[in-house]
Amino acid sequence: MHRRSFLRRTSAAVAMASAGIGSSSARAAHANGPNILLRSSWQTVNIGDIAHTPGVLRLLEKHLPDANVFLWPSKIDNGVDALLAARFPKVRVVQTKSQIADAFKTCDFLLHGSGPSLVAQRSIIQWSEETGKPYGVYGITVSPRQSSSAVDTSGEALQRTIDVLSGAEFVFFRDSKSMAFAKSQGCQSPIMEFGPDGAFACDLRDEDKAKAFLHRHDLQNQGFMCCIPRLRYTPYWTIPEKKAAFDPVRHARNEAMKASDHAPLLESINRIVRETNLKVLLCPEDQTQMRVAKENLLDRLPADVLPRVVWRPNYWLTGEAISTYVRSAGLFGHEMHSPIMCVGNGVPAIVCRWAEQTSKGFMWQDIGLGDWLFDLDDPDQSAKVSDAVLWVAKHPDAAKEKVADARRFVEDRQAKTMAILKQHVS
């Protein structure tokens, strides 16, 4: 859809709604607060994708307590539905066609949640064409290089994304490079600002499971660091439920780079064990990473280091992960959302990235943690990873002060972005 025709159609629909056509449900609902439809929950094979939704729900709960929130998810299986229901019992989940249709009538505003891109672009177009009501976008990446699960951003597809973003009341980008790129492509939303990834606000917990696991492996409070490895491309073809075809090109790239990519983590683990009293927990962010950790880290550790390294052999959900992270002395590795959840809960976290990833990692620069972000395609930066990890291990008070500053910045931005949302739904 060309941007001008999209905006013209949207403006006409908004004018109809303002005149009272088809808006009785919305007007009646205002007596009990605004009705917000949150489009989120992209998948459950990754605890970071799970965390997006409870993070934004918590922000809505805190900053717009009178709002009636409807969640329109893509995936909330594998026990995630129960987690969300327990934490947010007032949120109404809409999944069937009739439920979605009713939500379109009732809700005043659609909020697209955090994600690797404008994941639910088609849903926004459907909302705008059928209702004419406003929408906003909260904490996404828009990048020339998108992840394997994201929408195409080349040519006409990119222009369609820019058109939809231009029709939004606001777009909050989770990294400044995304904002700069969107603006360079002609994005014209009236409000375009840095807005933290929703996962920063995730407060899910599973204390019992975390305590039981830590007890079994003698991992004491503040007595270990977490390490999360990954391959350049997530091998979704190894997860049966994804039904993804084997990708020989990406597999070959993973195989070619896995030794050099994991070398900084191996060095960090060896130094933690040999130079401190801490242990190391190898844990996953997605369902493919237990095997990655065993083959690329655990199986390559020297005999004197191995006894103080614990390998988690099974996947976990976000609540248990956060309940574990908050008892650690810090986290390091190749992933992004476990570090986000750590910083959101006051835990030091070091991020390693590479060219195949989107620009999301640069949010560490945006929140004041740029010296904890390392480009593994740069040999000079790769060589400094273990020094940074050891600094966190040996200076826990200073590391936590540094995280506290970043957390305050994030919370300030959260409050300001939610204030903007409140203005648009009031």
Describe this structure in words.
With 426 residues, the chain is an alpha/beta fold. It has 17 helices and 13 strands. It has a 7-stranded parallel β-sheet, sandwiched between helices. α7 (155-166) links the parallel β5 and β6. The chain is globular and about 65 Å long. Mean pLDDT is 91; it is low at 1-30 and 146-153.
Helix fraction bin: 40-55%
Report the biggest beta sheet as strand number plus sense, adding barrel if it closes. 7 strands, parallel
Which sequence of SSEs, written as H and E, runs from N to C? HHEHEHEHEHEHEHEHEHEHEHEHEHEHHH
Average of per-residue pLDDT values:
91
Poorly predicted regions are: 1-30, 146-153
Q: Choose one word for the global shape.
A: globular
Structural class: alpha/beta
Number of helices: 17
Strand content: 5-15%
Give me the Rg, rounded: 22 Å
| Spatial sequence of strands, sheet with the most strands | 3-2-1-4-5-6-7
Instruction: Compute the separation of the termini in Å.
Output: 30 Å
Give me the count of strands.
13
Write the layout of secondary structure elements.
Blueprint lengths: L2 H16 L5 H6 L5 E6 L6 H17 L4 E6 L6 H8 L4 E2 L3 H10 L2 E4 L8 H11 L3 E6 L14 H12 L4 E3 L2 H9 L7 E3 L12 H10 L7 E5 L19 H28 L3 E4 L6 H8 L12 E3 L6 H8 L5 E3 L3 H8 L4 E5 L9 H4 L6 E3 L3 H4 L2 H10 L1 H30 L1
Parallel strand pairs: 1-2, 1-4, 2-3, 4-5, 5-6, 6-7, 8-9, 8-11, 9-10, 11-12, 12-13
Entry keywords:
426 residues; alpha/beta; 7-stranded parallel sheet; 12% strand; globular
